[in-house]
Amino acid sequence: MSLPKKIAYNALIQIASRIVSTILGLFTLALITRCLGQSGFGNYTTIITFLSFFAIISDLGLTLVTVQMISGAKEEEAKILNNLFSLRLVSIVFFMGLAPLVSLFFPYGPEIKQGILITAIAFIFPALNQILVGLFQKNLKMEAVSLAEIVGRLILSVGAWLAIVQHLGLQGILWATVISTFANFLIHYLFSKRLATLRFQIDFSIWRQIFNKTWPLAITIAFNLIYLKADTLILSIFRSPAEVGLYGAAYKIIDVLTSIPFIFAGIILPILTADWLNGQKDHFYKITQKSFDIMMAAAIPLVIGAQFVAKPIMNLVAGKDFIDAGRILQVLIIAIAAIFLGCIFAHGVIALDKQKKTITAYAFVGLSSLAGYLIFIPRYSYFGAAGVTIYSESLIALASIYYVWRYSRFSPNFKVALKSLLAAGLMGIFLYFCPLTWLGSISGLVLTIMAAAVIYSISMVVFGGFKINDLRMIFRSKPQSHLNLYN
Known about the structure:
This protein is an all-alpha fold. It has 18 helices and no strands. Helix 1 packs across helix 8 (204-238), helix 9 (241-277) runs parallel beside helix 12 (334-351) and helix 10 crosses helix 17 (468-475).
């Protein structure tokens, strides 16, 4: 199989598995919210968010440099991979061990603190997976990652169902999370043995090389963490568990949607990097523009459509106790456009190897967002958190666009985005006149969303905003561009 076909195959595998895992994730969310209710789900959200802080900090930028560092000389690949894996193990165990101790100083009840202690184990396995994913990416063997994700989701779904049937409550859900992440890691590890022999290895000269590459990413990740997770954490300190539960349920929908641009950006990053290293500026510009067009064509209808179907969706996904989360989703969804846009250009910055230049921007956004959360969450609860989230994501997107323009002189054309806005407007008119009875049932809601998607798609074709050749062009990039990526 030729390299472009392998890339396309891996992309299709990831997209297909993401669709399946998304369906399973939404089903699991439905089980968990119905099992725990607003307050219980608020406690669950607090536990996961608190541990996410430590897990993200422990990454140290290792995930993003794995593919790059193991793509050099073959004889060095095993040594570098083992050191990356070992460093990741040391960092995640240290920070996950620290998390329960730090939680003692927070005003949480014993159920949350005990939950943090249990669930800290679950965060060790995904951290190790991130290094293995780099190995699979480098060898274009993403089917292993896809299988592991689906199996993990299935186990969590079954665990959530058992927690309901056996009345195990929050602890049952947390232990199901631990088991599912372990199963996910086990599949990653077993498949990785076909490509490399992993063992614990410490070579401080290699660790210094790793830190030299990752320290700018580690700093930006730390600031990134503030505006990504501080909203839920601060909300859990100042507001009730029920409010945290509503916000967490709405944010779960956002998390599902944000996986789309990151999968796509992960596919185009090697292409952009190769183009820039090989001096192929015109192709770099073309791929970036087409990627921007595709992301805007996906994001704009999501933002407009959610204004009409957010409450029915939350009712369907999380249950009637979470209908009010629909109002939060209507606001939070605005951040989606910024995330879709920012993701493409943030990866463009990485392709240009200008990550260090973005530290100031991430620091400003992180600190100003923290101030915003502290000011607006005590006053406006989850709406304050959502508003600051929109601010932070928008500012990061604008900063990423600026840095790509500054170092490559590329600036996006908004022609397709405007056509998308017009097509989504027509779709919105249809949704506005939809009878409420259509949205009140599962079948009616699904058919309405499908009809809206058809209206939007046809409108985009009529306006000339959608061309299947845009995707084909991305996947048919020259093989030598990828082969020369890290040489």
